[in-house]
Specification:
about 90 residues; 3 strands; Arc Repressor Mutant, subunit A; 3 helices; globular
Length: about 90
């Protein structure tokens, strides 16, 4: 028999205003699909210290939409043909 008494008080309502609402996390495959690159490219970026920030859940990487959006914005050209500002900044 599985005991789930500690879960009975949990709410699955994501529209609650009583606390922070967590956004769904993206898998590495979803991020790669969104960016139009291979999953291995994202792993390569991470080895080099780049790419969007991730959250480690066990052995899996998950990405917050806000972090992916911030990374994309940081790599946007300020003007056509100009290199993105992020190329001159060290990503941590």
């Amino acid at each position: 028999m599985v005991r789930v008494a500690h879960l009975l008080g949990m709410s699955t309502d994501t529209t609650s205003v009583s606390g922070p609402v967590l956004e769904p996390l993206l898998s590495i495959e979803e991020v790669a699909g969104y960016l139009g690159v291979a999953v291995t490219t994202i792993y390569d970026w991470r080895v080099g210290g780049g790419g969007p920030r991730a959250i480690r859940v066990g052995r899996h990487l998950r990405f917050a939409r806000a972090d992916v959006a911030a990374w994309v914005e940081a790599h946007r050209e300020s003007r056509p043909g100009d290199p993105p500002v992020a190329l001159f900044a060290v990503e941590r």
